[in-house]
């Protein structure tokens, strides 16, 4: 099992700090997510139905018609490698590690890439997987660059997969509006921007043949009825979306400023997280954890990812904890 952010119970036990006393900055999930309304009893009593408005809400939000609702984009990440014969698959490193792990487990040959090495390796690949914006570095690829790579891959009957789990804050960079296209698969998630990771809802955007094959692989009712109800409401709430799109950049700048002030120079940025590449990563991670603040530690490259604090109390606690670390170091 790969490590992920959000392992709060483990941290509470390891550092002997009660679960309720933690600030979790380890996930990159919006801490002030969409507010869940009361869920009708019928959602618990009846099986999910495909004509409940979810796909229509998603089509409007993503500005495309060809999509499939799945149990989080993770369900697609695990299933897609099983649909293709063994291939040379290019993956970003660092990036969301489940992509590499799932394709490797399915027997595909993995070629690790950085943004700078994709171009020269493209002719050797059958499949290219891009996380855009990248997690954890925040690197954002341009639409034209991705379309150029897609064209090269398609000429050899290749495939471009784009994981847009963190794209909601920069929708103009999404390729969903240009879909469906042969040889292009886009993954979207409700978990990050909407702060609804627990409902396990995501979408696959692709041509009809891919969606039908994947739907057959996943089987009936991949999403629970309550999850579908919540996701539909959230996707339709344009007022909340617009307010959040205005708020998150201000919060991101505040976090970046705070970290830079404490000598933790930000290496990569996104509206939902800040990434710091430093040889002090493990030390800072442990010192913050000993004060009840959980960050996401990466071993390769040695780095930290900070998500956004939820409220002013958490902002102050983070600043105080960083001040304490800084005083100890000087």
Strand order of the largest sheet: 2-8-7-6-5-3-4
- Report mean pLDDT, rounded to a whole number: 96
**Assembly context of the chains:** single chain
Total strand segments: 13
CATH architecture of the largest domain: 3-Layer(aba) Sandwich
Q: Work out the count of structural domains.
A: 2
Termini, distance in Å? 38 Å
Description:
The structure is a single chain. The protein has 330 residues and is of the alpha/beta class. It folds into two domains: 8-33 and 239-329, Aspartate Aminotransferase, domain 1 (Alpha-Beta Complex), CATH 3.90.1150.10; 41-236, Aspartate Aminotransferase, domain 2 (3-Layer(aba) Sandwich). Helix content is 39%, strand content 17%. It has a seven-stranded mixed sheet with strand order 2-8-7-6-5-3-4, sandwiched between helices. Strands 9-10-13-12 form a four-stranded antiparallel sheet. Strands 1-11 form a two-stranded parallel sheet. Helix 3 (54-62) packs parallel to helix 9 (225-236) and helix 4 runs parallel beside helix 5 (98-105). The two termini are 38 Å apart.
